[in-house]
């Protein structure tokens, strides 16, 4: 067994109804909380009201920043940081999907440091311990942001989507209440659920994987293979929602240690250049080409995936099962409604050229068992233009 280090400092509060504990949990870290959310909807407004009530009962005053958008930008983060400073926030609560949690992390940095959050990206020294405490409360099941040291943000001026990656932005607490995912629309359940799949699978095949992350990721993949189709068939399936919430949480834990690979590096560029494409869509559109490009370089692990997605492969040898994983993955995408192409997503061939040219800006591609150059990335992306 190779040497490895695993660091996961986030306290995980998991289970139905545990949102009621947020007040006492937040009171450990401060008395003035900025709650970071997306724009109001009836369900979102009701949820925010519940959170404010729980906080107030614990003596924590709350203010709301509801400017979060999909693919959050530096402008959004700066507006949130100003709100945190004006309110005198001493902790930040991200309430919503991955965009809300990532924005909350970036706000916690910018509100407590000189400059902007963009000054503290993954290739810098990163934010210090002055970062405001963060509590992450997810309402989707896919991004894993509640257990990662990562905040993904986009600079719209340069069409650059990048990330802060530093231990100082691990949430202090991840409050994972599967009940909060019941209101997710079917398409959001599919897209975020596939993101959770990708987190776990990419951590599993990463060159930085280890025995612990392998064990966690494989268990999560088994949950997703069963639970995601069940959730899409019946959004009120409580057991399936719980399984997805857990697999999502594990996905964050394993990528915090092993990282992600080629699809996420390119997926970030797709989102940066074409913000109308959700993160889950950016992964789904590329995965059929990625599996066919990579399977031969990690046959045992792709074989494990093949056997999870297609029980008929359980008696096949590793080589056959690994090859079969490609078609099994195609079938899974079709089953969850994510058999898509760039043309249908409004991504032009010119966009694809620009995306490929930025394909090595982030280092995720180096974690892949087979490292792709820019020409190979371009060829794979172009094959995703129309299916």
Question: Can you lay out the helices and strands and say which pair or pack?
Answer:
Elements (H helix, E strand, L loop, with lengths): L10 E4 L7 H5 L5 E7 L3 H16 L3 E8 L5 H14 L3 E6 L1 H13 L23 E5 L11 E6 L4 E6 L7 E4 L9 H20 L5 H23 L4 H21 L3 H12 L5 H16 L4 H11 L8 H18 L13 H9 L16 H10 L4
Parallel strand pairs: 1-8, 2-3, 2-4, 4-5, 5-8
Antiparallel strand pairs: 6-7
Helix pairs in contact: 3-4, 5-6, 5-7, 5-9, 6-7, 6-10, 8-9, 8-12, 9-11, 10-11, 12-13
Nutshell version of this structure?
The protein has 387 residues and is of the alpha/beta class. It has helices at residues 22-26, 42-57, 74-87, 98-110, 186-205, 211-233, 238-258, 262-273, 279-294, 299-309, 318-335, 349-357, 374-383, and strands spanning 11-14, 32-38, 61-68, 91-96, 134-138, 150-155, 160-165, 173-176.
Give an overview of the whole structure.
- This protein has helices spanning about 20-25, 40-55, 75-85, 100-110, 185-205, 210-235, 240-260, 260-275, 280-295, 300-310, 320-335, 350-355, 375-385, and strands at about 10-15, 30-40, 60-70, 90-95, 135-140, 150-155, 160-165, 175.
- It is α/β, with parallel strands linked by helices and about 375 residues long.
- It has two domains: about 10-180, Rossmann fold, CATH 3.40.50; about 185-385, Dehydroquinate synthase-like, alpha domain, CATH 1.20.1090.
- The chain has a six-stranded parallel sheet, sandwiched between helices. A two-stranded antiparallel ribbon has the order 6-7.
- Helix 2 (about 40-55) links the parallel strand 2 and strand 3 (about 60-70).
- Helix 8 crosses helix 12 and helix 10 packs across helix 11 (about 320-335).
- The protein is globular.
């Amino acid at each position: 067994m190779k040497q490895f280090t695993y660091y996961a400092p986030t306290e995980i509060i998991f289970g139905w109804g545990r949102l009621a504990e947020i007040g006492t949990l937040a009171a450990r870290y401060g008395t003035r909380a900025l709650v970071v959310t997306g724009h109001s909807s009836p369900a979102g407004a009701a949820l925010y009201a519940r959170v404010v009530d729980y906080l107030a009962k614990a003596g924590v005053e709350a203010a709301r920043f509801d400017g979060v958008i999909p693919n959050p930008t530096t402008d959004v983060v700066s507006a949130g940081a100003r709100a945190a400073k004006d309110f005198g926030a001493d902790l930040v609560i991200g309430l919503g999907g991955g965009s809300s949690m990532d924005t909350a992390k970036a706000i916690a940095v910018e509100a407590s440091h000189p400059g902007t959050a963009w000054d503290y990206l993954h290739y810098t020294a990163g934010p210090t311990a002055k970062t405001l405490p963060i509590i992450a409360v997810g309402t989707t099941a896919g991004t894993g942001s509640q257990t990662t040291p990562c905040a993904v943000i986009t600079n719209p001026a340069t069409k650059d989507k990048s990330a802060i990656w530093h231990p100082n932005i691990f949430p202090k607490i991840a409050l994972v209440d599967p009940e909060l995912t019941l209101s997710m629309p079917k398409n959001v359940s599919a897209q975020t659920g596939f993101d959770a799949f990708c987190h776990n699978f990419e951590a599993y095949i990463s060159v930085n994987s280890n025995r612990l992350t392998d064990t966690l990721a494989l268990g999560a993949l088994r949950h997703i293979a069963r639970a995601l189709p069940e959730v899409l068939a019946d959004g009120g399936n409580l057991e399936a929602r719980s399984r997805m919430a857990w697999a999502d949480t594990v996905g964050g834990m394993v990528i915090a240690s092993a990282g992600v690979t080629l699809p996420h590096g390119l997926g970030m560029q797709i989102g940066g250049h074409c913000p109308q494409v959700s993160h889950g869509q950016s992964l789904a559109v590329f995965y059929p080409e990625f599996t066919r490009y990579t399977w031969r370089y990690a046959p045992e692990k792709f074989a494990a995936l093949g056997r999870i997605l297609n029980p008929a492969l359980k008696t096949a040898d590793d080589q056959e099962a690994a090859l079969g994983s490609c078609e099994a993955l195609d079938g899974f995408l079709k089953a969850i409604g994510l058999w898509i192409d760039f043309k249908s997503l409004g991504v032009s061939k010119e966009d694809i050229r620009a995306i490929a040219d930025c394909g090595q800006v982030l280092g995720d591609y180096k974690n892949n068992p087979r490292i792709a150059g820019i020409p190979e990335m371009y060829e794979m992306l172009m094959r995703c233009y129309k299916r």
